[in-house]
Specification:
Elements: H1 3-57, H2 65-91, H3 95-108, H4 112-128, H5 130-139, H6 148-158, H7 162-177, H8 184-195, H9 200-212, H10 216-224, H11 233-249, H12 255-264, H13 268-280, H14 286-298, H15 305-315, H16 323-333, H17 338-345
Helix pairs in contact: 3-4, 4-5, 5-7, 7-8, 9-10, 11-12, 12-14, 14-16, 15-16
Length: 357
């Protein structure tokens, strides 16, 4: 091996040794860097987890503002409800005193806003307490039927929900009916007329009054609140017999009231005969004849040829105070031939469109 070759070989060995040493040093440095980075990342992750845990636990001790407000609102609502309930209990301690205070207020004040508030306060108590409602209903027995307190009472009760108002007024009316007060029937009829409330028991009581009451004015009031179809055939016959007797025995001024009811509770055939008898009576009752014409115009009395003839007789009598009403009834409720029209219109002013009878 010559000298040149030895030199080249030695140089190569040195070069390889240098490169190997360099690579070994670089690898150690890289390992150190990676180890440091791993440690740093672990510490950072640990710190981050700690902070997250702190944030997660925090709401249990320091709720957000919205949650705090919500909790406060709930507490306030509960307290408000408790106070309101307490007020209602206090107010309902004496429903009679509240009612009397309202009646007194209504007679001396014109503040309708406060007036309405007092009514609402009483109704709220009655709706929430059956015992207070029962107490007020019992108190009504002591209230004169024609007093302002009586009207106020009915107004308050009728303003309750229907499931309360109807049975409440039925109870009041039934209590009034069995009351020992001599005016119990009159008071009962007044309450039925004010409220319009009907029930099988109330209808039965009305029929008894119409048939058996010793006072004709009570019987007439009861009939005003009854319909013919609510009476059986026997009851209807009893009513019409009583009305006929009342007409025969009453003064002429009272007869029309009985006669109008008699027409209403009679059959169509009976009504026509009653009308003809009234038109043909020698002592003609013009009030009753006028009622017949009203019934024809209302359609509750049939337009028969016999009634048409009776009306013609009145229409031709210039001195008869019912002539204009008879003419109107014939012209607007009967079918007239040309000759019939000429017969009643001769020398007469038939411009009666605006006439009132």
């Amino acid at each position: 091996m010559n000298l040149v070759t030895k030199i080249i070989l030695t140089a190569c060995i040195l070069c390889i040794t240098f490169v190997a040493g360099y690579l070994a040093g670089s690898n150690a440095k890289l390992t150190s860097i990676l180890s440091f980075a791993k440690t740093e990342n672990a510490q950072t992750a640990k710190q981050l987890n700690s902070e997250l845990n702190t944030l997660t636990v925090a709401p249990t001790t320091n709720p957000p503002v919205d949650h705090q407000n919500s909790a406060l609102d709930t507490t306030n609502v509960a307290k408000t409800r408790a106070l309101n309930n307490t007020a209602i209990i206090l107010d309902s301690g004496d429903i009679i005193a509240l009612f009397n205070d309202f009646v007194t207020y209504s007679t001396s004040n014109s503040d309708y806003k406060e007036y309405g508030k007092k009514i609402d306060d009483i109704r709220k108590i009655l709706v929430s307490s059956n015992s207070e409602l029962a107490l007020l209903l019992e108190y009504f027995d002591q209230v004169p039927i024609d007093s302002q307190a009586s009207y106020m009472f009915v107004s308050i009760i009728m303003g309750l929900p229907q499931e309360l108002s109807k049975p409440a007024m039925q109870r009041v009316m039934e209590n009034t009916l069995v009351n020992t007060d001599p005016a119990n029937l009159t008071n009962f009829l007044e309450l039925v007329a004010r409220t319009g409330i009907k029930s099988p028991s109330i209808t039965s009581s009305l029929k008894d009054i119409a048939i058996f009451s010793g006072k004709d004015d009570e019987a007439l009031s009861a009939l005003d609140m009854l319909m013919p179809y609510e009476l059986s055939h026997t009851e209807n016959q009893q009513v019409t017999d009583r009305l006929k007797a009342a007409i025969d025995s009453s003064e002429s001024a009272d007869s029309p009231y009985y006669f109008s009811q008699l027409l209403r509770f009679s059959s169509s055939t009976q009504r026509e005969q009653l009308a003809l008898d009234t038109f043909n009576a020698t002592d003609a009752n013009t009030s009753m004849q006028s009622i017949i014409m009203d019934s024809i115009q209302a359609g509750t009395l049939d337009r028969s040829p016999a009634l048409k003839e009776a009306l013609f007789n009145i229409a031709k009598q210039d001195q008869n105070q019912l002539q204009q009403q008879a003419l109107y009834t014939l012209l607007y409720r009967f079918d007239l031939s040309h000759d019939e029209y000429n017969d009643i219109s001769r020398d007469k002013n038939l411009n009666i469109e605006n006439s009132r009878f």
